[in-house]
Amino acid sequence: MKRSFIAILTASMALVACKDNEVFEKEMYKNEVALISSDYHNTFKEVVRLTGEEVIGYVAASSGGTHAPDKDLVIALEEDSEPLVKYNFAVYDNSEDLYAKLLPKEKYEIMDKKIVIKAGELTGRTMVKLRPDGLSPDSTYFIGLKATGSSGVEINPKKSTMLYQVIIENEYASQAKNTMYSMVGFANGLSTAANKQLFPLTSNSVRMVAGNETFISKVPNIEKNCLTLEIDDFNNVKIKPYKDIQVVQLDNDPMYPNKFKVEEAFGMRTNVFLLSYQYTIGNVTTIMKERVEMQVK
User: Fold this and answer.
1) What pTM, to 2 d.p., does this model score?
2) How far apart are CA 164 and CA 120, in angstroms?
């Protein structure tokens, strides 16, 4: 009797173990689909060069599981603003002036609002045409997306949404990182030095705070204290007001000829602006002679 009980118990345990193994294998081999993004609020950063033309980006998805799928997996993409609402509240709370924005509709086109992961492959993608010129370097822009599966396709619930971020850059500055230049020169004939952050505006222009004014990342301050550097095909620099500041370019100093150049030494490359200008903020006028540089490699 005792032997029969042990045999029954052993058989029961073996049956449970087999079922557990089946569940484990099913989970292990399951082709669950996820939008490819970081774990930071499901964001994906697309750094695009300002060229004056359309730029191509991609939204991608991947299939989980031990093996590649044996059939095509198709997921549909919907534009959804809800992920951005959650992102802004989580990151900025009630500071609405800091909120990220949806990328304006005229600035992009999703070429096919579905992603196909082909049988035998682990990833798929769809093309996004981006028109980044005119975006503000002071704003964060996202396309909010949500994935839905067709019949038989399972979506990872933690990776079913994405915030596709468009980040602008040009040859001289990037929104992807703080493009910090060092400045040495003269303000009204007196030696001065400072660090300056440059911001990309177009393919051939950047924004910079004038002289040794303090940079404050608020719209009224930016409009009051900043100027634009526009570089032509011959590396001549045209200095213009960004908004409210009064600027007069001075072209009579051979040491500061309003030129951009790239200096190379010991295998390193350095972006250099040699600038001469006069600017007025309120009733105060300052004459600047400055060398603004940043090591780029």
Assistant:
1) 0.85
2) 27
